[in-house]
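tool_call: predict_structure(chain=1)
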Amino acid sequence: MATNPSSSLIEFKSVVAGYTHLTILNELTLDARRGEITLLIGPNGAGKSTVLKTLFGMLTPRSGEVRFNGETINGRTPRQLLAQGMAFVPQGRNLFGSLSVLHNLELGGLQLPRQVLKDRIEEVMQLFPRLLQRIDQRAASLSGGEQKQLEIGRALLVRPEVLLIDEPSIGLAPIVVQDVMNLLKNLAQSGKSVLMVEQNVRTALKYADRALALEMGRLALDQPAAQLLEDPNLNRLFLGGSAKS
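tool_result:
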């Protein structure tokens, strides 16, 4: 699928990145567009999570260029990128379990003025009515799906232009996964961009707009998600034969 540069919110141009002496991204070039869910797929070790970490400033590219909103962001910190409109929901649970839902949200918006934070929390609660019902409960007492909603809600407090999310379905029941995917779809339809890594590829393809397949740190395929979902070679080519239904 041809890239439309005018709609690209995120761009990687010949990016090389990795950990210490291990190179993961090998001159990777890709883009993610405004108002879309872009799904990163590929076998383990292909570089999917490394893309998110490099984009969010957790890893610094060794060479190449990372651009956000047309601006080079190489070397910027997660705090700086958060202020620029980028939010990241990493794998696993990243909550303060002993604190309430409300306190977790407040900690996620510490940089906001008090009244703005209060208003933003009310906005988030409209998106997550189950969290509103549990506003004073400890985060550790929530179900897995509710904890994931809380993580996403906390990220949305800063009204990001783009949400990076890594493996949102881990540990969740299928019906809860559907709820989370619908939420991400609604965010994209409202104009936000979502860049997602997800192990449950067949389910994620049903909600994504585009799929970018990585192989050995390079872009192997850029295709509409609906089209890739119908490809009989999906498992063999990009998932090592282990895609989940």
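agent: Confidence is low (pLDDT under 50) at residues 1-6, 240-245. Proceeding to next step.
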